[in-house]
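hey can u check if this looks right to u? its 367 residues, i copy pasted from the old doc so theres a chance i mangled smth
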Amino acid sequence: MGLKQFKKILPIIRKTGVKFKIQKKIGLPFFFNKYRKRKMFFAGVLFCISMIYVFSLFIWDIEIEGNSTLTDEVLLDYLYSENVKYGSYKYSVDSDELEEKLRAQYDEIIWASVEKKGTRLVVYIQESLLPDKDKQNASANEDNIAKSIYSTKDGVVVKMITRNGTPIVSVGSAVSEGSLLVDGKVEILGDDGAVVNTKYCHADADIYIETKYYYEDSFPLQHKEKKPTDRSRNKYYVTLFSKTFNLYFDGEKYKNQESITRQQQLKLWGDFYLPVFFGKITEKEYENYSTIYDKDTANNIANEHLQQFCTELQQKGVQIVEKDVKIVVDQNSCFASGYIYVIEKNGEERDIVSDVQTPPDPADSEQ
């Protein structure tokens, strides 16, 4: 019952002579009365509430999503130059203005959105699917700059699509480095086959040639390997703002060791992050010992290196046609060499200069 109801039954209790006992008192008045002497406790609670409110006014975590060509480090450095960083006052960050600046700063970004969630700043971006080179070519076409296309490698043309300019080679033609593939000079012929006019344009074509790469790789058979021991240890630390406090003592250092660091940021709930990080460093000891690859292992490693090289070529849009690489294993080393035949896009644009000469002045002829 409430306190008012309890006071109403006191006269009845006195008249009837009933003995009573209060089993439990609940409510804020009784709570504050019980802990009235613990002023520091209430001061601490008030301080914690105040600090949580103060922390909520700043940005303690920045996340970037949707980027592929632009790395997080590049974008974070730009945000830092715009005074958007860890510890920035949340309401001083203008999301709309920052979105416009990101699009203006990087041509790769075609869409950007900046959202504040709790104490986090989330930057969503979308990058253009058009490569930089294609954008430059498109810009050059708009400016109508006279250019010709020259070969950058030796090979044989296997596919060719000309959209603008005069093709000098055709499918099956052998080309060498520096040879002209598509001329930006277009000659206009009359009915008699004579050149009546010459125009210049920006040559545009897709030319694929079959060419080859020389591949070479070698490594010694004797090498060092790591053998882990049974010794390991964990170290803990706490980072508050930018200050790190180690919760361990540096003991005996391992002669050879590997370290793995795991760090987690403290958050109270949802997107409410705090400038506090807890870290754990795991150190594991290992020993180095020398060993020698056998022939099969050496061949496998050489093939892995070759496959990695081919994968890197394919990621650049190169089509692998044939691999003629020999692997030789002797007593001390493994050596691989040969050619990789590929089909790849070829052509480099170069400015051309009009060869049309200015006609002489008749007055000069009379003189």
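The two ends are 127 Å apart (CA to CA).
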